Amino acid sequence: MEAIDSVLLVSGTHGNELSGIYLHHLIQQGLYRTERDSLSVETLIANPAAMDKGLRYVDQDLNRQFNARARQNAQSGNETRLAHSLRETYADREQQMVIDLHNTTSNMGATLILLSSSPYYKKMGAYVKQQMPNAYILFEDQIAWEEQAYLCSMGKNGVMIEVGAQAHGALQFEPLELMKDMLTAVLDFIDLANRNALPALTPNYEAYFYLGPVTLPLDEHGVRTAMVHPRLDGRDFEVLRRGDPMFITFSGDDMVWDKDEDVYPHFINEAAYCLSHVAMELAQKKTVSLS
Ligand SMILES: [Zn+2]
């Protein structure tokens, strides 16, 4: 991969996710430093109208507007206009990396979301994991780059940093520290890779590979008939094996994972997925090998 000569650091793609928005302020005030020898860093609040209202979005989710289908179905609205103008301004910058900062209400700690498992991103995961052993590396490479709808996929290179648990609209110390640590590691990686100065990387590490969402059971009126099981809630990235409880009905009956495959739930009870009744996303755990 060619050297990355610029980073577009995006906050406020979701207007109520405050770690990234406050990190943006800290950078403006010189309280968090992004300077690196081999690249320039430009910061951006992606959805100021949503931020001013304290909302995830005004009309539609901005972080789902960047694949061909979203462009074709584009209705008029704040986020459609924003997506168009962001693409016009930034998408053609060949040697740019977009880093998009997010919060989740799920207990995901610091999670680096990678949309490609190319050698470059595998190495980035290894480096970040080496700097932050408790971080999670989540590959969402199940679809091609062009089909990705996330803002960070608008150009050729991009990643997301997802930090939780933090309620949307709240700002807490620990998630902000985790976000700073992960951003520092990602910026360092890009700079070191540019200068061919990466340290020795562990040849193998554990990472998660996205499978898909699980929705809550609903009755014929679209009302939920169960909740995430209390033994699973808050246990993002822990294994779920056949027979483990997944949901609990309102009368107290367990509903279990009934497949043979071990899976790793995350985005468990994410507040922003409320309307779609998504209870969690599932991943597989695999060993990533750099060789
Ligand atoms: Zn977000």
Automatic annotation (TrEMBL):
Needed co-factor(s): Zn(2+)
GO terms of molecular function: aspartoacylase activity
Residue intervals of the Succinylglutamate desuccinylase/Aspartoacylase catalytic domain: 5-190
One Pfam family here: AstE_AspA_cat
SUPFAM superfamilies assigned to the protein according to its UniProt record, in alphabetical order: Zn-dependent exopeptidases
Residues in AstE/AspA barrel-sandwich hybrid domain copies: 205-285
Classification via Gene3D superfamilies: 2.20.25.160, Zn peptidases
UniProt keyword list: Hydrolase, Metal-binding, Zinc
Protein name per the record: Aspartoacylase
